[in-house]
Amino acid sequence: MNSNLNDNLSDFDTSIMQRVLELASQGTSTTQPNPRVACIIVNGKEIVGEGVHHMAGEPHAERLAIEQAGELARGGTAFVNLEPCCHQGRTPPCTDGLVDAGISRVVAAMRDPNPLVEGGGFELLTDAGIDVEYGLLENEARWLNRGFVSRMVRGRPWVALKTGATLDGRTAAYDGESKWITSPEARIAVQELRANSSAVVTGIGTVMADDPNMNVRIDGAERQPYRVVLDSHLQLPIDAQIIGTDQKLIVFTLSQDLDRVSALTEAGVEVVQLNDTSSGRINLHDVMAELSNWQCNEVLLEAGQTLSGAFMEAGLIDELTVFYAGSVLGDKAQSMFQFESPLSFAERFDFHIRSAEMVGPDVCLTAINQASWQTLVTKD
Ligand SMILES: NC(=O)c1ccc[n+]([C@@H]2O[C@H](COP(=O)([O-])OP(=O)(O)OC[C@H]3O[C@@H](n4cnc5c(N)ncnc54)[C@H](OP(=O)(O)O)[C@@H]3O)[C@@H](O)[C@H]2O)c1
């Protein structure tokens, strides 16, 4: 936690910050790689300007709120869920805009962990005579931008595993059939999870078994996540459905088969050849570092038991979203996580259950890896 809040913060201040967070969440599926940000300008007790950042390259929330407020911004308070930027990017620094507009107080939910900002925005505002307070609804703000914060403080995206499972935690039948464990309602909810992610990752096992497309099929979707396949031996068939769209497909491999690489590259696939490992399998931390370089904030893992198990074992699953259907497949069916090494009770992975809700006839349960969350709230 990082805060310099004054004791005199009012319920009104908190309610405005709650609205800021609601507005910022409107950018959940569009702002990546940028964070989700909104700004509200208040003069007295009146809201005089609101702005929501929509997409990278488009105006920042503060600029939009200032524009809407016009002269009424003078002497007002700007509430924003992230420290205003102080660097020239594709758009000019927001700190300049706030100073020029005559804002007298800025209340922010959190510092920006981006090394280009990291307190520099607050410093600039303070130097210009503006009162700056930060730390209001900080945890909520960090949660909203957990992918961005993760990329900034850990150098890797936030990884959420989504899986459809039976009541006994099975993700496919013994013969590999898994269509469809869950209901149409659950599958619609999955479309939203994909839309909110920078990349959707799967293993070659799932591609071979299901020939999935893994795109977002939501009317009016403004952005498609990258699709990513982990395929150590470059087995991906050239006629796989996942290749046949305009959306970027990245295949990570250990293979040095240049003919296969060029055939896939010609088909529009981005092939990333990683260094070989002693296990003969792709190093998942290398994949995460690469995806961070591709500016991926949130990654959705939609894989079978092998790759999901490897991610869990590597400590790379930050969030779990499991859609449980009212069926049972028994212990010969495929599990959610396959571990190659025995895991004793003491070595279990601990998650905190965050929510459980009905989605059609299924239950959607989300759980957070406490260790991951701690790194996001304690580091800046
Ligand atoms: N219920 C659900 O939500 C759901 C979701 C997805 C899939 N499924 C089902 O899961 C089944 C497929 O499961 P699966 O386990 O065969 O496939 P998978 O987990 O999707 O992919 C496994 C493959 O990924 C590759 N891989 C690359 N790097 C790896 C690493 N570091 N660690 C582990 N694997 C790595 C391996 O092949 P290489 O060594 O050749 O690279 C491995 O065999 C299908 O029946 C599918 O229907 C169910």
TrEMBL record:
Entry EC number(s): 3.5.4.26, 1.1.1.193
Any one Gene Ontology BP term: riboflavin biosynthetic process
Catalytic activity: 5-amino-6-(5-phospho-D-ribitylamino)uracil + NADP(+) = 5-amino-6-(5-phospho-D-ribosylamino)uracil + NADPH + H(+); 2,5-diamino-6-hydroxy-4-(5-phosphoribosylamino)-pyrimidine + H2O + H(+) = 5-amino-6-(5-phospho-D-ribosylamino)uracil + NH4(+)
Active site: E62 (proton donor)
Alphabetized Pfam families for the sequence: dCMP_cyt_deam_1, RibD_C
Pathway participation: Cofactor biosynthesis; riboflavin biosynthesis; 5-amino-6-(D-ribitylamino)uracil from GTP: step 2/4; Cofactor biosynthesis; riboflavin biosynthesis; 5-amino-6-(D-ribitylamino)uracil from GTP: step 3/4
Residue intervals of the CMP/dCMP-type deaminase domain: 11-132
Amino-acid positions noted as binding substrate in the UniProt annotation, renumbered to this chain: S178, R194, T206, R217, E302
Cofactor requirements of the protein: Zn(2+)
Cofactor mode of binding and number, as noted: Binds 1 zinc ion.
Domain of life, per lineage: Bacteria
Binding annotation for Zn(2+): H60, C85, C94
Binding, NADP(+): G164, W180, D210, S232, G304, Q305, T306, L307, S308, G309, A310
An annotated Gene Ontology molecular function: diaminohydroxyphosphoribosylaminopyrimidine deaminase activity
Alphabetically ordered keywords of this record: Hydrolase, Metal-binding, Multifunctional enzyme, NADP, Oxidoreductase, Riboflavin biosynthesis, Zinc
Family: In the N-terminal section; belongs to the cytidine and deoxycytidylate deaminase family.
Function: Converts 2,5-diamino-6-(ribosylamino)-4(3h)-pyrimidinone 5'-phosphate into 5-amino-6-(ribosylamino)-2,4(1h,3h)-pyrimidinedione 5'-phosphate.
PANTHER family assigned to the protein according to its UniProt record, in alphabetical order: 2,5-DIAMINO-6-RIBOSYLAMINO-4(3H)-PYRIMIDINONE 5'-PHOSPHATE REDUCTASE, DIHYDROFOLATE REDUCTASE FAMILY PROTEIN (AFU_ORTHOLOGUE AFUA_8G06820)
Protein name (Swiss-Prot/TrEMBL): Riboflavin biosynthesis protein RibD
Organism: Arenicella xantha
